[in-house]
Design goal:
Layout (H helix, E strand, L loop, with lengths): L1 H63 L1 H24 L12 H6 L3 H12 L1
Helix pairs in contact: 1-2
């Protein structure tokens, strides 16, 4: 009797292990696909930015001259790089919250303090 039960348990465990292996493979393929698509999207974005800068330079070169266009595009790229660099290193600091004693917090409008205290006393 126990041999049949043990065999059924082993078969179920083997089935679950097979399912888990298949699920890990499926999720790995999905993650790889998402990573590849994100990389392609990043390259497409970079290409669109380059084409836009070339078009802006061509337009500025016709309007005000090629050397001034170089300066405007270069200055804009430098400004963009500085802003991105600054944003990368700005860290949000958490707000400091003053903690008051439980009695004053309950008096200030925190109703759960009184309810918690009553629950503790009833236990």
């Amino acid at each position: 009797m126990f041999a049949a039960l043990l065999g059924a348990v082993r078969a179920d465990i083997d089935r679950q292990i097979g399912w888990a292996k298949h699920e890990v493979k499926r999720q790995t393929r999905y993650t790889a696909l998402i990573g590849i698509l994100a990389g392609v999207a990043a390259l497409a974005t970079l290409g669109a930015i380059v084409v836009g800068l070339i078009a802006l330079h061509s337009w500025l070169a016709m309007q005000i001259g090629p050397f001034v266009a170089h300066g405007v595009i270069g200055g804009g790229l430098l400004l963009l790089a500085l802003v991105l660099f600054a944003l990368a290193f700005i860290r949000r600091r958490p707000r400091l919250v003053a903690t008051a004693p439980a009695a004053s917090r309950a008096a200030c409008g925190f109703p759960w303090e009184a309810a918690t205290r009553e629950l503790r006393q009833s236990l």
